[in-house]
Amino acid sequence: MRRLFYLVREAWVNMRTNRTTTIVAILTTAFALACVGIFLLLYMNLRNAAGSLQEDVKVMVYLEDRRSSEQVRELERTLKTDRMVDGVLFISKEQALGEFRVQFPSESHLLEGLGENPLPASFVVTLAPSFRSPDAMKAWVERVQTMEGVAKVDYNQEWSSLLAGLIGYIELAAIGVGILLSAAAVTIIGNTTRLALLARQEEIEILRSIGATRTFIRIPYFLEGAVLGACGSALSLGILKFAVELFRQQIQLTGRFGGIEGLISFFPLSVCLALVMAGMGLGFAGSVVSLLRVGDGRA
Amino acid sequence: MDAIIQLIHVSKWHDRRAALSDVTFEIEKGEFVLLMGASGAGKSTLLRMLIAEEQPDEGQIFVHGKNVTKLRPSEIPYLRRKVGAVFQDFRLLPKKSVFDNVALPLIVQGASEKDIRRKVTEALRAVDVDHKNDQLPSSLSTGEQQRVCIARSIVNGPVVLLADEPTGNLDPERTREIIELFKLINARGTTVVVATHDPHVLKYVNRRVITLVHGVLLAEHRVGEGVGG
What we know:
The structure holds 2 protein chains of 2 kinds. Chain A has helices at 2-17, 19-54, 69-80, 93-103, 109-112, 134-145, 157-199, 201-209, 214-254, 269-294; strands at 59-63, 85-91, 122-127, 150-154. By secondary structure, chain A is an alpha+beta fold. Chain B has 2 domains: 1-82 and 159-229, Rossmann fold (3-Layer(aba) Sandwich), CATH 3.40.50.300; 90-157, no CATH class. Chains A and B meet through helix 1 and helix 8 of A and helix 2 and helix 3 of B.
């Protein structure tokens, strides 16, 4: 117990003794992690937006004319039992005409001269959430297109692909920036640990001479690195939260992009905790790297 | 008797100069040995080798049955827990109290709170600085600081106590007191090796003397008890 208390106290003393270095390390780590956080937030919000928009994605399956009601029911059954399909809504030729007239009242006269209703019957298909990716949708559409009685299948492929592409790019950027700035955080904390080590070289020598193991000597520095990383990460989350709230407020004040502020969300608590843990891990890694560089002779 | 320290044809070079040259001797369990020699004779090198702070270039060193030259790095701390070390510059932690400084070897070993309190109090009482346990080293005299250093080196009951120029910073009276303290520790069964260049120390001891000159073991003899002994 006393040993644990000693190790924690040593870590605390290290940080207090090198107060300026500690504060600079926390601030620079927070800045680096906040940059990573911006990309993560962007990525998370775009994914959320894409998810909610994809819920509205409907695939229109237009039917050939002159199909018997039995054939239409058979096709409906086939679609409903498809594991990729979440919901199927049948729209008859008459319903389609009615909707056209409601949606385009000024153009409805165009259809009157044609005699027979030219609009086809259709199924409005909602795909299951796990099959709403552009590739899955494309594959499904190609399969349904070959079914008997199907005239045409329509969905907004371009929009879906574009969004998926954008999310992909942001994901890549988040990973790239994340790796780069995480390495920067590791280096910053590593240097802080090294400074602390050099400042306490004499004390380390004394500890070694009285039989302290390498682990015993190193633990306070590991703790210090982990605490610096966690503090930096927590501070970066604070900065990001403040920035998100400010952004929301600005949108509300300007009155533009009405309603979009409701769509912008911050990391949930579980993600915040995971990010603080990740910061702790980076700090720990920084200390490990630093202690390994300093080598056996010293600690 | 059993040899607790054994050097067999030990040589060490520092920058092509022989710090120790083919040194062979044994120290029995419970002995009090003075290691004499001028500055640069190789005394400190020899003591550092006994606690594996340096490795010989040739030869073998045995301490308490362990071949120090063959120890793995992870085994070295455990050797140092059995061998107490006292230094000329005391090597006390300036921001820790006397009590905390002396408690350090016990904390390192994971001793219980109760044991730490008891053993530190005993060690401080043995060196007669128990009344200063809350003070910082900087508020103590040099003689008292050396006593604290000795208390730290004996607090975990080492089998061997090595002292490198322990009286180098002390006046003759304090020197005599410190040597008396080592004799007391030796009387309790701890093997004591004191390295010194100070011939005045010889006045206070009637023990075995090993003399090194330029890294060569010159002579071994016993000296007569002096006035203060």
